[in-house]
Amino acid sequence: MILQKDWPNLGKQGEVKIVKMGFAKNFLIPQKIAILGTPQNLKKWEATQIKLQEEAEKSLEQLRKLAQAINNHKLILQKEVKEDGNLFAEVRKLEIINALKEQIPALKNVELSKEQIDLKEKIKKTGTFEIIFKPHKNIEAHLQLLIEAHKKAKQATKTTKSSQKKPSAKNNYF
Questions:
Q1: Quick one: which of 157, 162, 156, 95 has its CA closest to 129?
Q2: Does the pLDDT value for residue 170 go beyond 80?
Q3: Which of 78, 82, 134, 146 could form a cystine bridge with 150, CB 3.0-4.6 A?
Q4: How far apart are CA 98 and CA 110, in angstroms?
Protein backbone atom coordinates (compact mmCIF):
# COMPACT_ATOMS: atom_id res chain seq x y z
CA MET A 1 0.00 0.00 0.00
CA ILE A 2 1.14 3.52 -0.80
CA LEU A 3 -0.07 6.00 1.80
CA GLN A 4 -1.80 9.07 0.41
CA LYS A 5 -2.16 10.75 3.84
CA ASP A 6 -0.34 10.72 7.14
CA TRP A 7 -1.99 8.17 9.40
CA PRO A 8 -1.22 7.57 13.11
CA ASN A 9 0.48 4.26 13.92
CA LEU A 10 0.77 3.46 10.21
CA GLY A 11 3.05 5.98 8.51
CA LYS A 12 3.39 9.25 6.65
CA GLN A 13 2.23 10.29 3.22
CA GLY A 14 4.25 8.68 0.44
CA GLU A 15 5.49 5.72 2.45
CA VAL A 16 5.02 2.19 1.17
CA LYS A 17 3.59 -0.14 3.82
CA ILE A 18 2.53 -3.75 4.00
CA VAL A 19 -0.88 -4.20 5.61
CA LYS A 20 -3.47 -6.96 5.82
CA MET A 21 -5.76 -7.17 2.79
CA GLY A 22 -8.95 -6.73 4.83
CA PHE A 23 -7.64 -3.52 6.42
CA ALA A 24 -6.70 -2.20 3.00
CA LYS A 25 -9.99 -3.12 1.26
CA ASN A 26 -12.35 -2.16 4.06
CA PHE A 27 -10.69 0.96 5.42
CA LEU A 28 -7.60 2.40 3.73
CA ILE A 29 -8.80 2.34 0.11
CA PRO A 30 -12.41 3.54 0.73
CA GLN A 31 -11.16 6.36 2.97
CA LYS A 32 -8.58 7.29 0.30
CA ILE A 33 -5.80 6.96 2.83
CA ALA A 34 -3.82 4.57 0.62
CA ILE A 35 -3.73 3.05 -2.85
CA LEU A 36 -2.65 -0.39 -3.95
CA GLY A 37 1.05 -0.84 -4.60
CA THR A 38 0.71 -1.97 -8.22
CA PRO A 39 3.72 -1.60 -10.57
CA GLN A 40 2.01 1.34 -12.31
CA ASN A 41 1.25 3.09 -8.98
CA LEU A 42 4.79 2.44 -7.75
CA LYS A 43 6.24 4.17 -10.86
CA LYS A 44 4.04 7.21 -10.21
CA TRP A 45 5.04 7.10 -6.57
CA GLU A 46 8.76 7.09 -7.44
CA ALA A 47 8.30 10.12 -9.72
CA THR A 48 6.45 12.06 -7.03
CA GLN A 49 9.04 11.09 -4.42
CA ILE A 50 11.79 12.58 -6.58
CA LYS A 51 9.80 15.82 -6.96
CA LEU A 52 9.07 15.99 -3.25
CA GLN A 53 12.73 15.41 -2.42
CA GLU A 54 13.84 18.22 -4.76
CA GLU A 55 11.26 20.62 -3.28
CA ALA A 56 12.34 19.72 0.25
CA GLU A 57 15.99 20.36 -0.62
CA LYS A 58 15.13 23.75 -2.16
CA SER A 59 13.09 24.80 0.86
CA LEU A 60 15.81 23.62 3.23
CA GLU A 61 18.40 25.64 1.32
CA GLN A 62 16.17 28.73 1.51
CA LEU A 63 15.82 28.26 5.27
CA ARG A 64 19.61 27.93 5.61
CA LYS A 65 20.11 31.19 3.71
CA LEU A 66 17.49 32.88 5.85
CA ALA A 67 19.15 31.65 9.05
CA GLN A 68 22.56 32.89 7.84
CA ALA A 69 21.08 36.29 7.00
CA ILE A 70 19.67 36.82 10.48
CA ASN A 71 22.34 35.04 12.53
CA ASN A 72 23.93 37.30 15.18
CA HIS A 73 21.40 40.04 14.46
CA LYS A 74 20.47 42.36 17.32
CA LEU A 75 16.78 43.00 17.97
CA ILE A 76 15.63 45.97 20.00
CA LEU A 77 12.34 45.84 21.88
CA GLN A 78 10.98 48.62 24.04
CA LYS A 79 8.80 47.67 26.97
CA GLU A 80 7.22 49.53 29.86
CA VAL A 81 9.13 49.11 33.09
CA LYS A 82 8.33 49.55 36.74
CA GLU A 83 10.36 51.88 38.94
CA ASP A 84 12.50 48.95 40.12
CA GLY A 85 13.56 48.15 36.51
CA ASN A 86 11.44 45.03 36.03
CA LEU A 87 8.94 44.78 33.22
CA PHE A 88 5.21 45.00 33.83
CA ALA A 89 4.74 41.85 31.77
CA GLU A 90 7.24 39.32 30.47
CA VAL A 91 8.26 39.43 26.83
CA ARG A 92 6.15 37.03 24.80
CA LYS A 93 7.20 35.08 21.74
CA LEU A 94 4.58 36.87 19.63
CA GLU A 95 6.23 40.20 20.46
CA ILE A 96 9.58 38.78 19.38
CA ILE A 97 8.05 37.53 16.11
CA ASN A 98 6.62 41.00 15.43
CA ALA A 99 10.01 42.59 16.19
CA LEU A 100 11.72 40.10 13.85
CA LYS A 101 9.33 41.00 11.02
CA GLU A 102 9.69 44.74 11.62
CA GLN A 103 13.47 44.89 12.04
CA ILE A 104 14.65 42.22 9.58
CA PRO A 105 13.47 42.83 6.00
CA ALA A 106 14.16 39.22 4.95
CA LEU A 107 11.46 38.02 7.38
CA LYS A 108 8.76 40.51 6.45
CA ASN A 109 6.76 38.11 4.26
CA VAL A 110 7.82 34.87 5.98
CA GLU A 111 5.28 33.06 8.14
CA LEU A 112 6.72 32.55 11.62
CA SER A 113 5.33 30.56 14.53
CA LYS A 114 5.95 30.64 18.26
CA GLU A 115 7.45 27.15 18.10
CA GLN A 116 10.36 28.52 16.06
CA ILE A 117 11.46 30.85 18.88
CA ASP A 118 13.47 29.33 21.73
CA LEU A 119 13.99 31.39 24.87
CA LYS A 120 16.51 30.12 27.38
CA GLU A 121 14.75 31.96 30.20
CA LYS A 122 11.68 34.09 30.79
CA ILE A 123 12.39 37.72 30.05
CA LYS A 124 11.06 39.88 32.89
CA LYS A 125 13.65 42.68 33.07
CA THR A 126 15.63 45.00 30.84
CA GLY A 127 18.92 43.88 29.38
CA THR A 128 20.33 41.70 26.60
CA PHE A 129 19.12 38.14 26.11
CA GLU A 130 19.98 35.36 23.67
CA ILE A 131 17.23 33.96 21.47
CA ILE A 132 17.47 30.92 19.21
CA PHE A 133 15.39 31.02 16.02
CA LYS A 134 14.74 27.54 14.61
CA PRO A 135 13.04 27.62 11.20
CA HIS A 136 13.73 23.86 10.84
CA LYS A 137 14.73 21.14 13.29
CA ASN A 138 18.31 21.07 11.88
CA ILE A 139 18.74 24.82 11.34
CA GLU A 140 19.07 27.53 13.95
CA ALA A 141 20.13 31.16 14.17
CA HIS A 142 21.26 32.93 17.33
CA LEU A 143 19.95 36.45 17.94
CA GLN A 144 20.49 39.05 20.64
CA LEU A 145 17.38 40.69 22.08
CA LEU A 146 17.91 44.03 23.77
CA ILE A 147 15.06 45.06 26.06
CA GLU A 148 15.00 48.82 26.60
CA ALA A 149 12.96 50.81 29.09
CA HIS A 150 10.04 52.72 27.66
CA LYS A 151 8.05 54.78 30.15
CA LYS A 152 4.73 56.30 29.22
CA ALA A 153 4.22 59.86 30.27
CA LYS A 154 1.50 59.88 32.88
CA GLN A 155 -1.12 62.48 32.18
CA ALA A 156 -1.87 64.63 35.16
CA THR A 157 -5.59 64.68 35.72
CA LYS A 158 -7.04 67.61 37.55
CA THR A 159 -10.12 67.02 39.55
CA THR A 160 -12.42 69.94 39.76
CA LYS A 161 -15.57 70.41 41.70
CA SER A 162 -17.61 70.31 38.49
CA SER A 163 -16.22 66.90 37.57
CA GLN A 164 -17.02 65.55 41.03
CA LYS A 165 -20.72 66.40 41.03
CA LYS A 166 -22.93 64.16 43.03
CA PRO A 167 -25.70 62.46 41.11
CA SER A 168 -28.99 64.23 41.61
CA ALA A 169 -32.02 62.47 42.96
CA LYS A 170 -33.85 63.16 39.69
CA ASN A 171 -31.51 60.82 37.76
CA ASN A 172 -31.72 57.95 40.22
CA TYR A 173 -34.24 55.43 38.94
CA PHE A 174 -33.75 52.84 41.64
A1: 95
A2: no
A3: 78
A4: 11
